[in-house]
Amino acid sequence: MTVPADARTRHVRWVAPLCWAAVALEGFDLVVLGVVLPSLLKEPAWGLDPNSASLISVVGLLGVAAGALSVGPVSDLFGRRGAMLVTVSGFSLCTLLCAFADGPWLFGVLRFLAGLGLGGVLPIALALSTEYARTGRGGSATTVLMTGYHAGAVLTALLGIFVLERFGWPWMFVLGAAPALVLVPLMVKFLPESAAFLRIRGASATRAVRPRNPAAVLFRHGYARATIAFWMTSFMGLLLVYGLNTWLPEIMRAAGYELGTALALLLVLNVGAVLGLLIGGRVADRIGQRRAAVVWFSAAAVSLALLSIKLPGLSIYAGVLLAGVFTFSAQVLVYAHAAQVYPAAARATGLGAASGIGRFGGISGPMVTGVLLTAGLAYPWGFYLFAVVAAIGAVAIAAVDRGPAPDAPVATPLRDERRVSG
Description:
The chain is mostly helical. The protein contains 16 helices and no strands.
């Protein structure tokens, strides 16, 4: 079926904002647990303590990892548009049901189920954004997309200030699910299917052959080394993101800073993350995603090591801002490079696998740093540990030995769609 050119253009323009909104909802949903935990700990009927609350957090992250690993292949086999609709609808429904959970067991199960959808959103959104990016803008398309995550996280914190005391923690989950009532119908109407997926499906139908298992592609045709490198880098990258976001205030307090200063430094860290995303994408478009990722991880290692020195006055804010610029966006540049390296037939699978394996780094980061805090070694050894992790990430991403896949997006999306629709 041939779609009129004006309709194709309109749909292409909807890809970026719809994917951004989906990632923003993911950012909201993955941070909301931290916002409501103090209230959950006060629920007398739940009987939660910090250990059992941490278990709920881990269960949710395991769901995210499982979703990232499983939804990617589904997207490559059956289409990105349908998979996106299912994941957004699924995690929004489970998020809504969390508001009515009557105990920690049901709440934990719902968090795991929501995680399955949350984990699937990111690889699909990354694949679509890459495939519909303008020529030579794959890096910035990916980093701009990921600003949605931080926007969702900031919105969660702001809503928590106004909602928790006035209306109670269940309303946080109601508000987190409500945007899907608008977003899902918009996706149904305006989100186009991946042009790359349609080409592959059309070619398979013409030759009357079954599509290949996308997971097998990750270790065949010379992709094995790149796959292992992406997994290792993602593990290190998300270890940094979750470790710093969870424990930076406590590490800075151990260094002798006041609580207010320590919390302000966490905000500065995330402001730096957004700046790093905007800058890093443009740099990647100019010098290439792999080279930019190596530079970003290396700079992260240096800036984190420098935080082991107690800096006076405003210089500590500058140091933390610099660490945020390089540390958080380094992992996003890994996603941008992976989206270019893997062929369209396995693109979401490769991105999902990197994200899923990386989530185990996200689980490990807070745990390892927590051990250092308990032992009284978090400052300065926590920053030394983070610096070494960033250096390993730089070495791992440098080991990727493949350039862009032959079918990596190099033309404008509208031109791609014209080739599909004839």
